[in-house]
Design brief:
With 232 residues, the chain is mostly helical. 68% of the residues lie in helices and 0% in strands.
Length: 232
């Protein structure tokens, strides 16, 4: 790939940047698909769960209800695993690529503010997986003949404990994927090259926001509508 006379980028660097963006795009699409998968699994469970309950919401077919809930928990956890595999890296990339001006105004300003709570969601989901790994390690060689039964029960407990975080990720994870997709063109690009433009953007934005800090995003996000959470 030819470069302009004033460009310091070499063809090798440009190719590396393109590879980074391609790998980034794959991760972002995986997160978007996982968020959508959690939503679909939840919607499917909501569709059939009422058939197991009476008008007051109490199960009348306890076996069918329990089996359905186990299936939903398992489907949701599979998508949580995708977030644990790619979420922290993509989140770090978003925060590195986002400019202060992106927080002040722009198409992803609201999304960036809504990402503040995703760290704790990913951390707690990661703790559940680490606990699961420890349980499986203890079972190794300790339960000959009965491990499969105990492992299945331990898996159900893990999935059940993870459903809340799956529900959170169906919303926050979609927000992360959307912000990351918007920033794809900046991946692999030296952000210092944009300093002058960013400072100009901040100056224009700050002129109408007396007292706002250009070094950090606004602290208040009270105007954001609360996410609708499904009942369990």
């Amino acid at each position: 790939m030819p470069t302009s006379p004033g460009s310091s980028a070499t063809p090798a660097c440009q190719l590396q940047d393109a590879d980074e963006r391609a790998a980034w795009w794959v991760r972002v699409q995986a997160l978007a698909s996982a968020a959508d998968g959690i939503t679909q699994a939840s919607d499917q469970w909501d569709t059939v769960s009422d058939s197991y309950c009476d008008e007051d919401g109490w199960p009348v077919d306890e076996t069918g209800y329990a089996d359905g809930k186990v299936a939903w928990d398992a489907a949701a956890w599979e998508h949580v695993e995708t977030f644990l595999a790619h979420g922290p890296e993509v989140l770090a990339g978003v925060r590195a690529a986002a400019q202060p001006a992106d927080y002040l105004d722009g198409p992803i300003s609201a999304d960036l503010l809504r990402l503040r709570g995703i760290d704790s969601v990913l951390e707690r989901a990661g703790e559940i997986r680490r606990e699961w790994d420890q349980v499986i390690a203890l079972m190794e060689g300790a339960m000959p003949g009965s491990r499969e039964l105990y492992e299945e029960r331990a898996r159900e407990i893990r999935n059940s404990e993870g459903w809340h975080y799956a529900d959170e990720l169906s919303y926050n994870g979609a927000v992360l994927a959307r912000a990351a997709d918007h920033l794809t063109d900046r991946i692999g690009v030296d952000q210092s090259a944009h300093t002058g433009r960013v400072q100009a953007d901040l100056a224009r934005s700050a002129s109408g926001q007396r007292g706002a800090s250009a070094a950090s995003p606004p602290a208040s996000a009270a105007s954001d509508p609360p996410a609708v959470r499904r009942s369990r």
